[in-house]
Amino acid sequence: SSFEKIVANIDRVLSETEAEVQLRVHLAPETLANFSEVLEFFRSRGWTDHPRVVIYGSTLYAKNSEGKVRSTVPNDHLARELSAFTRRYQNVYSCPSEFHATVALRPVFTDGTRFELRGVYCSANTASYIFAPDGAVYSCWESVGQDCSRIGTYDGPEGLVIDLEQATRWFHRSIATLEECQRCAYALACGGGCAQYAEYNTGSLYKPFCDHFQQVFRHTLAENLELFLQTGRSKLGSPKAVVRE
């Protein structure tokens, strides 16, 4: 089966290379209860607490009749519901926002320095070029095949052709160009959220897609602080880490 092939390939990558593997578990209301079963399978393969494996849940996003996007399970709900499972392992997270927040907070616990700042949400806004089978180049893997993120072509008689206007529209999006983000205390940790989902919901890339980031960040900070006080480390941190005064 395709699942067995994926499992075999993950094992091969971990045994034959030094690459990091990220495992994304899609979750919907009807599958949320199965997360523990999936983690148990991952544990049996030796993937939980593996230093080169990151495991995270991810809500499914659905479009309504108007083309607007909503999460089937809000990220803050995932963070609360899956906390009992994610706290058991150093490399398991409830949602992408929790993982990103933990990465950002890592220097605070390991070095006593400021958390990592991010002016953009993902590589779709920092020059991501996705060469798709249809011969087009896209900036966002979420909308491959759609005109909204097509920034060029590569299989025509002229070879690679980039639509500079469209590419600029995508690559100039940052919290500096999102008015709402300039007034948000979480902007430099969030990065403005998914540009494509923002466009689906508002008609513009230059609007934020918050996706409950504030609630998830507070939850993640509290959990990492509790773990640090108990063990002397946070997730992704060193057990020898000392916070400088």
- Whole-angstrom Rg: 19 Å
Structural class: alpha/beta
How many domain regions? 2
Strand order of the largest sheet: 6-7-8-9
Overall mean pLDDT? 89
User: Which consecutive residue ranges, at least 5 long each, have pLDDT under 50?
Assistant: 238-245
Give helix and strand order, one letter per element, not per position: HEHEEEHHEHEEEEHHHH
What's the count of strands?
9
The N- to C-terminal Cα distance equals 54 Å
Question: How many strands, what sense, and barrel or not for the largest sheet?
Answer: 4 strands, antiparallel
Q: Shape from CA axes?
A: globular
DSSP helix count?
Answer: 9
Strand content: 15-25%
Helix content: 25-40%
What does this structure look like?
- There is one protein chain.
- This protein has 245 residues and is an alpha/beta fold.
- The chain has 2 domains: 2-116 and 211-231, no CATH class; 123-202, no CATH class.
- It has helices at residues 2-16, 35-44, 75-81, 83-86, 96-110, 164-171, 187-190, 195-202, 213-231, and strands at residues 21-27, 53-59, 61-63, 69-71, 92-93, 130-131, 136-138, 150-156, 159-162.
- It has a 4-stranded antiparallel beta sheet. The chain has a 3-stranded parallel beta sheet with strand order 1-2-5. Strands 3-4 form a two-stranded antiparallel ribbon.
- The radius of gyration is 19 Å and the shape is globular.
- It starts with a helix and ends in a 14-residue tail after the last helix.
